[in-house]
Amino acid sequence: MLADMNAWIQGARPRTLPAALVPVLVGTAAVAGMDGFDGTGKGIMAWRFAAALVVSLALQVGVNYANDYSDGVRGTDDERVGPMRLVASGAKPAAAVKRAACLSFAVAAVAGLALAAATTWWLLVVGVAAIAAAWFYTGGPRPYGYAGLGEAFVFMFFGVVATSGSAFVQTERFTPLTLGVSVPVGLLATALLVVNNLRDIPGDTDAGKRTLAVRLGDQRTRILYTALIGVTFVTVPFLAGLSGRPIAAAALFTVLLARPPVQKVLEGTKGAALIPVLGATGRLQLVFGVVLAAGLWLGA
Does the pTM of the predicted model rise above 0.85? Predict the structure, then answer.
C-alpha cells in the first residue's frame, strides 16, 4: 500500500509544486491592503485564497499526470533520464494515469467553479483554457510542447494567469502591481521547465520531441536558464519601488540560493546530474516567492 502511494506521489512530481504554490501566495499578497471590488476594504478572503490554491495545485498535478500518460503511450519516455514516469516504467497502467489526470483536472474545475460563482463567470473560460493547455502540452495529435511552445504556456498560465488571477478573485480587478509581480513568478516557473528540458535534450532529440531546448541546443539553453534567473532578480527593485512596498526588495537576498544551480548549469552539468539542479531551482522559486509575498504583505 505504501509503495503504491509512493509511486503516485512520485508521479505527481512534487518538485514542480512550487510552480503552483508561489503564484497564489504572491498574487494574494499583492492585493493586501487594497479595497475589495465593491470598495468595502474587506481584505483577503481566506476561502478564496484556499480555492485558488486548490485550482493551481490540482492543475499542476494534472498536467504532470497528463504528460506522464501522453509521453508514456507515445513511447517518448522510454529513454528518460529524470524522475520515474509511471507509464513508461510500467509502475502504473496508462488508463489509471489518465484517470488520475482527469480527476486532478476535475478537482481544479470544482474549485474554479466556486470562485467563478463568487466573482465572474468569465473565469470559466480561463479555467477551460488552462485545462486544455495542460492536456495538449503533450497530448492530442499535435502537442505544442513538442513544438517548442511549452515555456510560453508555463510563463502565461503559471505566471501571469495564476498570479494575477489569484489577486483578481480577491478584488475582482487587475492592477499594474498584480500584473507586474506575475513576471518574476512566471520567469522562475519557466526556468524550472527549461532546466528540465535541458536535461532531456538527448532523449527528446532521439524521440523526435522538438522542445525549445532541443531547438536552441545545449549551450543556448544554458544561457536562457541563466537569463531567466537573472531577469527575475532585476525586476524586484522595480516592483518594490513602484509599488511603494520597499520591504518586498528582501526577495533580492534569495539570489544566494540561485548561485549553486546557475553555476552547475554554466559548468556544463548534464544528464542525471541535472536532477539536483531541478530541485534547487524549485527551492529557489519557493523561497523567493515566500519572501516576496511576505514583503508585499507586510509593506501594504
Answer: yes
Overall domain count for the chain: 1
Q: What is the pLDDT of residue 39?
A: 47
DSSP letter for each residue of 190-240: HHHHHHHHHHTHHHHHHHT---HHHHH-HHHHHHHHHHHHHHHHHHHHHHH
Q: Residue 207's pLDDT is what?
A: 76
Check which CATH number belongs to the domain holding 145 and give it: 1.10.600
DSSP per position, 48-75: HHHHHHHHHHHHHHHHHHHHHHHHHHHT
Alpha carbon of 278 to those of 17, 188, 189, 268, 271: distances in Å? 12, 11, 11, 14, 11
The overall average pLDDT reported for the chain is 89
Cα-based distances in Å from 241 to 205, 235, 238, 248, 299: 44, 10, 5, 9, 11
Range of the domain at 274: 2-298
245: Cα within 13 Å, side-chain hemisphere: 25
Angle at 19 between CA 16 and CA 25, to 5 degrees: 140
> Rounded CA gap, 197 and 260, in Å?
19
Rounded-to-integer distance, Cα 106 and Cα 104, Å? 5
Four-residue CA torsion sign, 74, 75, 76, 81: positive
